[in-house]
Design a protein that fits this description.
Length: 206
């Protein structure tokens, strides 16, 4: 029986979509994407509740925190790149967080995309690549929590065939208040032979 692939760092690709470790070199593209998409993303952005841990105050600090969590095996922070014929462009993030090993083998996945690249099927492919990688490296269950009003994020899990498993009132602090979330989850046993990526491309990623 072959050993599982290394969990991190890793680079994964499906067609023109690539996910790879986020880097401080992404700073300019990250800031531009967040600026351009501010009105589109703010209603879904995590915020800090009273007495909560302060968020990083710069992109460099954010990357340092994410990389530290990755080294500890607690997270996998991916940048999404798209090569549309003019070279690879940073277009968003997929982050695996809250990784628990032991008897749970569980993690959560969150994602966002630049509004300029929305609606092109990029995010379903990126999320599929990441979840397939999670299962290939030994995790058993992946959860995605989405606000009921966030139709764009809901379409991603629907396209991937990830089932809804529950409803969590006041689950996360989003856009300044505790917000209800719909909970979607998938286990390794639920994935088709070609991986989740086969549900959106018809073939496996690399």
């Amino acid at each position: 029986m072959s050993a599982p692939p290394p969990a991190w760092p890793v680079r994964l690709r499906a067609g023109e979509v690539t996910v790879r470790p986020i880097s401080r070199r992404d700073a300019g593209a990250w800031r531009e994407a967040r600026r351009r998409s501010a009105g589109w993303l703010t209603p879904w952005d995590a915020t800090v509740p009273p007495n909560g841990e302060a968020r990083p105050t710069s992109f460099a600090a954010l990357v340092r925190r994410l990389h530290r969590a990755a080294r500890l095996g607690q997270a996998m922070p991916f940048a999404i790149e798209v090569d549309d014929g003019h070279g690879p462009r940073f277009v968003g993030q997929v982050t695996v967080s809250n990784i628990v090993r032991g008897s749970a083998m569980f993690a959560s996945v969150g994602y966002w995309i630049d509004v300029a690249y929305a609606g092109r099927g990029i995010m379903p492919r990126a999320v599929a690549l990441v979840i397939d990688h999670c299962f290939a490296t030994g995790l058993h269950r992946i959860e995605v929590a989405i606000r009921p009003e966030n139709s764009n994020s809901l379409r991603v899990v629907e396209k991937l065939g990830i089932p809804e498993v529950g409803y969590a009132p006041r689950y996360l602090h989003i856009d300044g208040a505790w917000r209800d979330h719909r909970i979607y989850a998938i286990t390794a046993e639920d994935v088709p032979p070609g991986g989740l990526i086969s549900r959106v491309t018809g073939s496996a990623g690399t």
